[in-house]
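At this stage, I wrote out one protein, both as residues and as discrete backbone shape codes, and that material follows here.
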Amino acid sequence: MNAYDIIIKPIVTERSTILKEKENKYVFLVDIKASKPKIKQALKELFNVDAKKIHTMIVHGKMRRMGKSFGYRPDWKKAIIKLKDGQEIKPIEEVK
């Protein structure tokens, strides 16, 4: 699994923006099978930054209905990454 398969995309919400500004934390959608060391290595490879701490969680898919039938959205994994002091990820800083 290469770095582009591990880190899929940033999650840009009101809460993630507040985390970025106040605590230097970034939120990413990552592959559900990715471990914390692999996420840390992918960050170093893609953005050239060092992670101080990584929190991961699996978000379970919500139930969706279409008439009488129903199904579930897929489960996904979210990673909240705290960077070392003085580091930032440039591509996300430019998105506003």
User: Anything to note?
Assistant: The chain has a mean pLDDT of 93. The domain at 3-85 is CATH 3.30.70.330 (Alpha-Beta Plaits). The radius of gyration is 15 Å.
